[in-house]
Amino acid sequence: MPHSIRLRTFRDLLNDGAVVDDPERIATYTTDQRQLFTGAALAVLKPTMTKQVADIVRLAAQLGIGIVPQGGNTSYCGGATPDASGRQIIVSLERMDKIREVDPVSMSISVDAGAILKNVQDAAANAGLLLPLSLGAEGSCRIGGNIGTNAGGLSVVRYGMTRDLLLGIEAVLADGTVVSDMRKLRKNNTGYDVKQCFVGSEGTLGIVTGAVLRLAPLPTRRATAWLKLANGAPLAELLALVRRESADLLTTFEFMTARSVALATEVLTDPPSLRAGPAGAVLVEFASSSRHLDLDELLEAVLAEAIEFGWLEDAFLAQSGSQRTAMWRLRETIPEGEKRRNGSVKHDISVPLSSIQRFLDLAGSHVRSYDVDLELSVYGHVGDGNLHYNVLVPPGVDRLEFTKRIDGSLSLQLYDTAAALGGSFSAEHGVGRFKKHLLERYGDVGRIAAMRRIKTAFDPANIMNAGAVVRPLGEKSAC
Ligand code: FAD
Ligand code: 2HG
Ligand code: ZN
Question: Is any atom of ligand 2 closer than 6 Å to the C-beta of 136?
Answer without folding.
Answer: yes
